[in-house]
Design brief:
Structural class: mainly beta
Family: Belongs to the peptidase S1 family. CLIP subfamily.
Oligomer: single chain
Number of strands: 18
Keywords: Disulfide bond
Largest sheet: 6 strands, antiparallel, barrel
Distance between the termini: 36 Å
Protein name: Serine protease snake-like isoform X2
Number of domains: 3
Number of helices: 3
Order of helices and strands: HEEEEEEEEEEEEEEHEEEEH
Strand order of the largest sheet: 13-14-15-18-17-16
Strand content: 25-35%
GO biological process, one term: proteolysis
CATH architecture of the largest domain: Beta Barrel
Helix content: under 10%
Shape: globular
InterPro entries: Peptidase_S1_PA (IPR009003), Peptidase_S1_PA_chymotrypsin (IPR043504), Peptidase_S1A (IPR001314), Trypsin_dom (IPR001254), TRYPSIN_HIS (IPR018114)
Length: about 325
C-alpha cells in the first residue's frame, strides 16, 4: 500500500472528543470518529534518506495476517496499535498487569468492568504500543499512561454476575499517536454473521491449553469464529451464578473454535474481539466485543462470551465524545 491510499484531511479536527450536537443517529458519532482516526495511519516523519524535505509522509498500515493455526501466534510491531494492557500498582515501578483493553480515542480505553478492580486495587495504569511486556529489546515504543477516570454503564455490574461487563477508562493525558499506537473503531452494528471466522482476539493471556500456565510475555493473536448464541447458552447453562438469565444474544457475542485449540484465557479479560478493514475507513480495526468470560482455555466445545459493544453505543458516545 502507498501513502496515496491514506484518507485526505477533512474539515474535522482529529482527536478532539467533541461532536456536533445535532448528531443523533445511533452510532453516527462512532462512525465519524472512526474515519477521523484513520488519518493517523499516515504520518509525517523525519526523512531517513537525503531529500529536499525534512519530513516525508509515511504509511504505517500493517495488514494483519492471521492464518488458521492452533492456538495463537505473536503479533508484529504496529499490527494491533489499539491494544492496551491494564495494571494496578502504587507507582510505575510496581505494576501488576492483569487485563487487556482497546484504545478507542486518544484519551479513552475500553475494557471489561470486572477488570476495574484487581487484588483490591483500582486499575491505575495503561500500557500502549507494547509487544513483549517483559522486554525493552523488542521493536516497540510503549507508552505508560495513568488512569484519571473509570466509567461503567448506568446499569452497572453486579459483582456476582457478568451482565454489563464493559467499562471505559479515561487517561490523564492523551496518548501520542505513533506507528505503534492509534485508536480502533467501535463497531456500532449489532448484526454479526454467525459462523464467520474473520474475527481476531489479541492479548497477553495464558497460552496453555486448558489453562494453568503463566500469562504470555508477548502479545498474541488468534482467530475466532462467531457462533450462534445457543451454543454459549448450552455451554454456560450450569453457570447460573454469573449468567442467571442465560447468555443474552442482544448483550453478548458467542465466539470460539469448538474443535479446540483457539480461545481466550487468564489475563485476556477486557481484550478486544475485532475485525480489520483495509478499505474506507482506511486500515482500521473494528471492535465488536470485549472479552468477558471463557470456560476452558482452548478445550473442545468451550466457547467464550464477549460483551457486545453495539448495545452500549449511546453510553459509549456520551462518555467518550460528549456533544459540544
Amino acid at each position: 500500500m502507498f501513502c496515496a491510499d491514506c484518507p485526505q484531511n477533512s474539515n474535522t479536527t482529529v482527536g478532539k472528543n467533541t461532536v456536533d450536537a445535532s448528531t443523533l443517529r445511533l452510532g453516527s458519532t462512532a462512525r465519524k470518529k472512526c474515519e477521523e482516526y484513520s488519518q493517523y495511519v499516515c504520518r509525517y516523519e523525519e526523512a531517513q534518506v537525503l531529500t529536499d524535505a525534512d519530513q516525508v509522509l509515511t504509511n504505517n498500515c500493517v495488514v494483519p495476517l492471521v492464518p488458521l493455526v492452533v492456538g495463537g501466534e505473536p503479533v508484529i510491531a504496529g499490527e494491533y496499535p489499539h491494544m492496551a494492557l491494564l495494571g494496578v500498582g502504587a507507582d510505575q515501578e510496581n505494576i501488576n498487569y492483569h487485563c487487556g483493553g482497546s484504545l478507542i480515542a486518544p484519551n479513552f480505553v475500553m475494557t471489561a468492568a470486572h477488570c476495574l478492580v484487581f487484588q483490591s486495587q483500582h486499575v491505575r495504569w495503561v500500557l500502549l504500543g507494547d509487544l513483549d511486556r517483559l522486554s525493552t529489546e523488542d521493536e516497540a515504543e510503549p507508552q505508560l499512561l495513568e488512569v484519571s477516570g473509570r466509567f461503567t454503564p448506568p446499569s452497572g455490574l453486579d459483582r456476582e454476575e457478568l451482565y454489563h461487563d464493559i467499562a471505559l477508562l479515561q487517561l490523564k493525558t492523551e496518548a501520542e499517536m505513533t506507528r505503534f499506537v492509534r485508536p480502533a473503531c467501535v463497531f456500532p452494528d449489532p448484526t454479526l454473521e454467525a459462523n464467520n471466522d474473520a474475527f481476531v482476539v489479541t492479548g497477553w493471556g495464558d497460552t496453555t491449553r486448558g489453562g494453568g500456565g503463566d500469562p504470555s510475555s508477548i502479545l498474541q493473536k488468534v482467530r475466532l469464529g462467531i457462533l450462534p448464541n445457543n451454543v454459549c447458552q448450552t455451554s454456560y447453562k450450569f453457570h447460573r451464578n454469573i449468567f442467571p438469565r442465560g447468555v443474552l444474544a442482544e448483550a453478548h457475542v458467542c465466539a470460539g473454535n469448538l474443535t479446540g485449540g483457539r480461545d481466550i484465557c487468564q489475563m485476556d479479560s477486557g481484550s478486544p474481539l475485532a475485525f480489520f478493514r483495509s478499505e474506507k475507513p482506511y486500515c482500521m480495526h473494528h471492535v465488536v466485543g470485549v472479552a468477558s468470560v471463557g470456560s476452558s482455555c482452548g478445550l473442545r466445545n468451550s466457547p467464550s462470551v464477549f460483551t457486545r459493544v453495539s448495545i452500549y453505543m449511546p453510553w459509549i458516545e456520551s462518555v467518550v465524545w460528549p456533544p459540544s
